[in-house]
Amino acid sequence: MNKLQDKVALVTGGNSGIGLAAAELFAAEGAQVIVTGRRQDVVDDAVRRIGHGAIGVQGDVADIGHHAALAAMVRERFGALDVYMANAGVITIAHSAGVTPQEFDAQFNVNTRGVFFGVQSIIPVMRDGGSIVLTSSLAATRVLEGHAVYAGSKAAIAAFARNWALELRARRVRVNVLSPGPVDTSILAKLGIADSDRPAFLEAMASMIPAGRLGEPMELAKAALYLASDDSSFVNGIELNVDGGMSLT
Ligand code: NAP
């Protein structure tokens, strides 16, 4: 109940899915939570659901000014940040032959550039001994049809994490990657699959996972809490697959 007591934690994309579950768990564990997302109404709903004095900030992680404003807000209101979870992400599934430059940029701007400049902006306000958790994807290391651009945009994150883990060692800021397999969140609805095809799609996905099912957001949140808290105090620069064993298939 108190793994993040009196800590300040910021979760990008914390208004939905994995980020929302992590924000709820962090708050239940005693953290002052800040969540972000582009949709103000969904951010507001998330703040109500998280409770515990959570704060919502609307913004786009592809906008570098948004990260600067977040860092300034953290410094002004809380002095420093203990946990930064760079979790906001988007996906478009398409065979490489049909990918447009706009689709490519949309995914890299959020999933890769947004993570890089988010961390760059937040480092000056991270408390020494803090923890950074980056949400990647199993797709970064396992080939899935139509995922080339998404996989590339996520694969960079593990390289960032390894470099940052060493760059920040003097300040004892740990940097780790959370790599989810398929998880039942609203991102699945954003894949452009018709409602009528959804059950067959979910069944096909589940059949690829040794656990026989998709993950639940709270299962990812528990792994995020492990990486965010002192439970993982000797863990740095790793990529933690939380995927029901899908990486084995
Ligand atoms: P989700 O429910 O769709 O959540 C995605 C979150 O990112 C939302 O809060 C969304 O809020 C936010 N977001 C998207 N683009 C943003 C932007 N430009 N600026 C700020 N916020 C933005 O999906 P999820 O499954 O929880 O995804 C969370 C992370 O897990 C993502 O990085 C995703 O790639 C990764 N992941 C998910 C799965 C899965 O199967 N669910 C598997 C592997 C990895 P707004 O729409 O309001 O901006």
Describe the structure.
- Helix content is 41%, strand content 16%.
- It has 7 helices and 7 strands.
- It has helices at 17-28, 40-50, 64-78, 101-122, 148-167, 198-207, 217-228, and strands at 8-11, 32-37, 55-58, 81-86, 126-135, 174-180, 239-242.
- The longest helix has 22 residues, at 101-122.
- It is globular.
- It starts with 7 loop residues before the first strand and ends in a 7-residue tail after the last strand.
- Bound molecules: NADP nicotinamide-adenine-dinucleotide phosphate (NAP).
- NADP nicotinamide-adenine-dinucleotide phosphate is lined by residues 12-13, 15-19, 36-39, 42, 60-62, 87-91, 110, 135, 137, 180, 182-183, 185-187, 190.
Keywords:
single chain, 249 residues, alpha/beta, Rossmann fold, 7 helices, 7 strands, binds NADP nicotinamide-adenine-dinucleotide phosphate
The assigned CATH architecture is 3-Layer(aba) Sandwich
Ligand set: NADP nicotinamide-adenine-dinucleotide phosphate
Rg, alpha carbons: 17 Å
Task: Give the helix level as a range of percent.
Answer: 40-55%
In total, the number of strands is: 7
Q: Looking at the structure, what is the overall shape?
A: globular
The strands making up the biggest β-sheet line up spatially as: 3-2-1-4-5-6-7
State the helix count: 7
Q: Indicate how many domains the architecture comprises.
A: 1
Superfamily (CATH H level) name? NAD(P)-binding Rossmann-like Domain
**What is the average of the pLDDT values?**
96
Largest sheet: 7 strands, parallel
Estimated share of beta-strand residues: 15-25%
Structural class from helices and strands?
alpha/beta
By CATH reckoning, the class would read Alpha Beta
End-to-end Cα distance: 35 Å
Order of helices and strands: EHEHEHEHEHEHHE
